[in-house]
Specification:
This protein has helices at about 20-30, 50-55, 85-95, 100-110, 125-135, 150-155, 170-175, 195, 200-210, 225-235, 295-310, 315-325, 350-360, 385-390, 400-410, 425-440, 460-470; strands at about 10-15, 35-40, 60, 75-80, 100, 115-120, 140-145, 165, 185, 220-225, 240-245, 250-255, 270-275, 280-285, 330-335, 340-345, 365-370, 390-395, 415, 445. The chain has about 475 residues and is an alpha/beta fold.
Amino acid sequence: MKHPRTYRNEHVVILGLARSGVAVAKLFHEYGAKVTVNDKKELDQCPEAEPLTALGISVICGGHPPGIIHEDVKLVVKNPGIPYTVEPVERARQLNIEVVTEVEVAYHVCRAPMICVTGSNGKTTTTTWIGLMLDAANKQPIVAGNIGRALTEAALEAGPENTMVVELSSFQLKGTRDFRPKVACLLNVYETHLDYHGTMDDYIDSKAKLFASQTAEDTAVLNWDAPVCRRLAGEVKASVLPFSIKEELAYGMFVQPSMNAPGVSAADRRIVYRDKQGVLHPVLTVAELGIPGSFNIENALAAVCAAFTAGVSLDVIAGVLREFRGVEHRLEYVATKDSVQFYNNSKATNATATIKTIESFERQGIILIAGGLDRGSDYMELLPVFQDRVKGLVAIGETKQKITHVAALAGMSLVKSVDTANNVQDTVDTAVREAMAMAEAGDIVLLSPACASWDMFPSYEERGRMFRQSVHNL
C-alpha cells in the first residue's frame, strides 16, 4: 500500500470494529479518504460505532452486505482475526484490491524505529522486557501492537526520538507488504493457529514476513535452537543475531555452560554475549532472572539481543532482568492456600506453552487445570509430561474429553471433568475447588489451559481473572 495520505477522496473499507479498526478508520478519515467500516456484529454490540459515525464515517453493522467491496474501493484494511475466506476479502481479491492489516498502515505513518517481536510463545513477556530495558536507558519506548494499544494510534504519537516496541501475531503479519522493522525478533515456531492458517507453511510464511523487507542495515534476532528460525537465517537479508540456551555460539547471545550441560546449577550458568571478535561479555547468571522457566531464559536472551542492538548497555539490561517479576496471566503467582501454591498461566493457549510451563517447575506435585476451545488437536503431545510431571488434572471446556483421554493413557488417577454448561464463574470456582481437593501441602495448582479461551470466555485475560478470583475466594 501507499502512505495513507495518498488515499484522499478514495474509497477505503475497514473490516472489523475492534481497537485497530477504530484507529485505522480515524486515520484515513483525517487524511480525507471516503471510509466505510463494516462489522458482522449487530449495532448494539458495537459501542465503537457511535464515535465514528459522529465523525461522519459510514459504519455498517450486522453482516457483510453485498456490494460493500466494489471497483472503486482502493484499499481494504482487515482486522487480523477475520479469515481470508470471508466474502468481502474474497471479493477484494477478485477485483485485485489490496488487503492489508493495521500493522502495514501503522508502518507508513510511524516516524520512530521499530523493534518487533513475534513467535508462537513468549511474545508478551519478551516485548515487555524490551520496553522496560529501553525505558531504563531513557530511550523513550512506546509499547504497542498485539500487547495492548492499537499500533496505528501509537505510531501517530511516535517521533524520531522514540522507539516503537511491538508485539505482533501471525494474523497481523500475514497482511503486510512493505512493513520493515529495524530489529525483528522471532522467538520460536510451534504448531498452532492452523484453524486460521490452514497449513504450517502458511503459518511460517506469515511469521517470516517480519523479515521480508529488512535490509543489511537491519537486525534479525533468531532462536538458534528452533529449526524454523535457523532455516530462515539463511534467507533473511538483515544482519542475523542468534541466541541459544542449548549451544555455545561463535557469535551471539547464549547460556554458558549451555542448558544441555548436565549437573550445573542455575547459579553457575550465565547469560553471555560473544561479539564478532570472539570476546565474551557476561550479562548475569540464570539464577538472577526474576522469573522462572527455561522458556523465560529464551525470552530473556531475545530481549537482551534486541535491547543491546538498540544501544542499551548490558549493565542496564541485567538490572531489568533481575527486577522483572512477570506479566499478568503468564506464569503469574496468585496465592498460597494451606501450603498449596496457585499460578495463573491463562496465556498458555497451545499445548507447547503448557508443556514448557509445567517443565519450568521443580518436581513438585502439579495439579493442572486445562481445556478450552477445540481447534482439532488430539493433545497427545501432553502425554510425556502427564506421565512424568502432573499429579492431577481438572479438565474444562470443549476439549475436556480429549485432555482427560490423554490423562487416562498416562495412567493418571486424579482426574476430574467439570461440567461447563452452567455459569462460567461457577465453572471456574468448581474447577479450583476440585484442584484444591486433589492437592497436598507443597503442591502447585496451575491454570495452563493448552487451549484458546473463546469457547467459554471472551479472552484469556478474563479466564485468568476468573481463576484468580476463585483462588482468592477459597
